[in-house]
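User: Hey, my collaborator sent me this sequence without any context and asked if I could get a structure. I don't really work with proteins. Can you help?
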Amino acid sequence: MEEIERKFLVTNTDFIDESNVQNRIVQGYLNSNPSRTVRVRIKGEKGFLTIKGKGNNSGTTRFEWEKEIPVSEAELLLQLCEKGIIDKIRYEIPLGKHTFEVDVFSGENQGLIMAEVELSNEHESFEKPQWLGKEVTGDKKYYNSYLSEHSFKTWK
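Assistant: No problem. I've predicted the 3D structure and written it out in structure-token form, which is a compact way to encode the shape of the chain:
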């Protein structure tokens, strides 16, 4: 399966009033390197195991495989993860025919707010909300796997 998405920084918290769903996400990485990541995630009341491949040159497209697992198993796997657990609240905001997912990070990444939108192809147009800021698609320092190793609080 291919995942096609674009990522943006968020300029303010106006999106909160537009959100129809919000979930706490806690995730860690069993393996993270330039060619693949293996992630364990608890999102709300569900557990997931996800493998993501290396992105294309623009960073918009990459292989993604995800399987739902029991939360109890996800909790055990999180204990095996590499240093740097990600903790965030994800807000879902429908806009036109797309849904923006806005992550408000806490813990070591507090202060970072990012949005992503999944697309059917790299060139698909989409409506941009007024709170959407600079595009960071393909900038590896905004990948969750990078943030788990180099927290936002340590950036200069």
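In plain terms: The two ends are 36 Å apart (CA to CA). You can pass these tokens on to your collaborator as they are.
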